[in-house]
Amino acid sequence: QIKGRTIRVDHVANYRPPKDSDDIDDVTKALHAKGCGVKTPPHTSSDSLSEDDDGVPVKKQKGEVCS
Question: Region Disordered: which residues (predicted)?
Fold first, then answer.
């Protein structure tokens, strides 16, 4: 319920995606197979070590002077 009104989304359960026809060109087939999202670079262990060291602040003991 939103503001005292009931919102129904029953029509979503009956949704059928359109059928793929045989007249799809090669570019469209490649897009369906590969996708068009952003590719993230692979995560390597050497990068994770340097990121962890830079992101964590070092605590200083009382009386220690910054130089």
Answer: 1-67
Residue 33 or residue 66, greater confidence: 33
E strand or H helix at 16: none
Q: Are 7 and 1 in contact (CB under 8 A)?
A: yes
H-type alpha helices, the chain:
26-34, 45-55
Compute the mean pLDDT over every residue in the chain, rounded to the nearest whole number. Answer: 71
Tens of pLDDT, residues 45-54: 664 444 445 5
Nearest CA-CA partner of 19 in 1, 32, 38, 35: 32
Please name which of 45, 66, 48 lies closest in space to residue 58, comparing C-alpha atoms: 66
